[in-house]
Amino acid sequence: MTAAATTSVGGLGQARRGKMLPRFRTDPLALAGAAIVLVVVLAVIFAPLLVPYDPTKIDPESRLQGPSAKHVLGTDHIGRDVFTRLLYGGRVSIGVALVVGAVSGVIGLLVGGVAGLGGKLIDETLMRVTDVFLSFPWLILAVAVGVAIGPSLWAAMMALSFVWWPGYARLVRGQVLGLRGIEYVEAARALGNREARILFRHVLPNVL
């Protein structure tokens, strides 16, 4: 029973992926968006090979120049090349996005999974804590956390992760509530599997 149910769910996931990829390949807007994202990411990664300037070097003689062959986007008020600073700044932005998405996603996945499968008391407790975080304006809460941790890039990333996980948690909890009564979960529980094993082995992989 467990194997059949698991195979059925796996087949459903493969079927959905099988339908999604051909639709993506034939959608011109999706392909154009993917191409733009790819170009931006590659330009940011290979920034040292694309631009000859130091993003922090000051050149007063070149200040406030307009776009030209030498400076594609011109220069700022202290002579730094704007295009160079844009590419190097993109490195920081993409890195922050990846770290914040990963950290807040993992926290939200764990909190939402435990809340959805842990029983009424655990669910109520975790969701009320989540509601407290959601009740604060995210920007003010992020600033407060950043000030408490200290002024640094890592502090900013941790502050953003700290305020973005509740959305993931509520989303995952809803998915877990829908999955916990399915046959393969009930079969795993009947076979004596602990809730933690059911959560990590059966529920969260299907939530993902």
User: What composes the largest sheet?
Assistant: none
- Encode the helix/strand succession as letters: HHHHHHHHH
Query: How would you describe the shape?
Result: elongated
Give the fraction of residues assigned to helices.
over 70%
What structural category arises from helix and sheet content?
A: mainly alpha
Seen as an oligomer or otherwise, the chain set is single chain
Strand segment tally: 0
Describe this structure in words.
The chain is an all-alpha fold and 208 residues long. The chain is built from 9 helices and no strands. The protein is elongated. Residues 8-13 have low confidence and may be disordered.
Compact overview of the structure:
The protein is mainly alpha-helical.
Task: Give the secondary structure arrangement, pairings included.
Blueprint: H1 2-25, H2 28-45, H3 47-50, H4 82-117, H5 120-135, H6 138-149, H7 153-179, H8 183-190, H9 195-207
Helix pairs in contact: 1-8, 2-4, 4-5, 4-7, 4-9, 5-7, 6-7, 7-9, 8-9
What attributes does this structure have?
208 residues, 76% helix, mainly alpha
